[in-house]
Amino acid sequence: MVYEKEMMNCVWLALKLPDCSPRYTQLINEYGSATNVFTDFAEIHNENPQLIKQADFERMQAESPQQLFHRLENTIDELNIKIILLDSEEYPTILKSISNPPNILFVRGNLPCEVQPKIGIVGSRKCTSYGIESTRAIANRLSEKGACIVSGLAEGIDACASSAALEVKNNPFPTIAVLGSGIDVIYPKCNEVLYYEIIERGAVISQYCPGTLPTSYTFPKRNKVIAGLSSCLIIAEAAKGSGAIISADYAIRFGRKVFCIPGRITDWQSEGANSLIEAKKATMLLSIEQVINDYIENPVEISVTDSIKEIRNDERTPKTPTVKKSITPKIELDETSMTIYKALSDGEKTFDELCIITGFSSPVLNLSLTTMEFSRIIKQSHGRTYSILCDI
User: Fold this and answer.
1) How far apart are CA 391 and CA 329, in angstroms?
2) Structure pTM?
């Protein structure tokens, strides 16, 4: 396949900037094209280091667009991977409505049409038989009604949701799986058969460059895309601090409604979902007919909410230094988060330093840091450096 020069440069620029960075659009708008950015990126870096930061500059220097495509083209052609850029007409409109959507999507299979309802279903990897039975019944029923089920290909609830949607043969696009790895990296391996079944009748998508291995850092961003693609989100089972709760946090921020299947109070797999219901952040799902009525038969219009506009303005507009104001956190700190907060009380720390100081594993630390960022308790700076944003 022959790739146009501007396409190569756009893909290069999208991948060299951080995931979901608004600077991709800013650079193209300000300098006319990705080719102009490639030609003058050293000069742009010197003149406007806020647009091309040092880490971006080093990535740009290390590999040209031609070198990038030489590395990727065999994989792209062999696996029939589609590349969809943020400014492309093929880019899902619903995903564009969120704050800082991914600059680029890699797709295997076919995305559903814009008007087909897309409903997210996520939950625990270590789920109960109750969770499996509930998920299968709900996903199958929604698919029968014409919805496209959006999930994450993880073991447990995610795989069950996609599998149940695929059982409905008269639904032309029953499911989308969003990966926390490169589009060609099947994780977990036990879902390989399901991966190919989804490609055959739906779509597998990723915001990450082919070959990217899954890490604790990639999955929260995967969860953001799941929430962004969904007109509403259903949580079947979710423990406290799980990836499904991160997806719910994103959905709430994006103005999407969150439904939770209530779980038994004795099941730790349902603690997170039950807590969302208790905090009135989610609606208890007692009948699937409510979802069918509001999001399939009489769908609500998805638009950019005022809160997202504020987030965008905050992220994209350079600010002059101001006096730090105390912001009331949205959640109470659990024991893990309090340990992190205390570690940051005497100054900013890198992710690696926090691992050493707290003794937490990378996955545990990453989940807690992400939750604390959502709640505006801490902030992350360049180089995965964290500092306290508000006093508690």
Assistant:
1) 9
2) 0.75
CA 360 vs CA 83, 374, 384, 387: distances in Å = 37, 20, 16, 17
Q: Concatenated DSSP letters for 150-214? A: EE---TTHHHHHHHHHHT-TT-SS-EEEE-SS-TT--SSGGGHHHHHHHHHHSEEEESSPTTPPP
Question: What's phi and psi for 142, nearest 5 deg?
Answer: -65, -40
3-state secondary structure of 273: helix
Task: Measure the CA–CA gap between 215 and 212, rounded to whole angstroms.
Answer: 9
Q: What tokens does 360 get?
A: 């937490």
Q: Distance between CA 184 and CA 108 in Å, rounded?
A: 9
Spatial separation of the C-alpha atoms in residues 228 and 369, rounded to whole Å: 21
Average pLDDT over residues 179-184: 96
In this model, does residue 268 exceed pLDDT 70? yes
Q: What is the pLDDT of residue 314?
A: 36
| Maximum Cα interatomic distance, the chain, rounded to a whole number of Å | 60
Cα(186)–Cα(229) distance, integer angstroms: 21
Q: pLDDT confidence of 315, banded at 50, 70, 90?
A: very low
> Each residue of 61-76: pLDDT tens digit?
999 999 999 999 999 9
Residue 298's nearest CA partner among 117, 139, 143, 98 is: 117
Question: Following CA atoms 167, 172, 175, 176 in sequence, which dihedral angle do they give, to the nearest 10 degrees?
Answer: 150
- Residue 337: its pLDDT value, please? 85
Q: Is 381 helix (H, G, I), strand (E, B) or coil?
A: strand
Distance CA 337, CA 343 (A): 10
For 76, the token pair is: 């792209």
Among candidate residues 319, 354, 342, the one with its CA nearest the CA of residue 391: 342
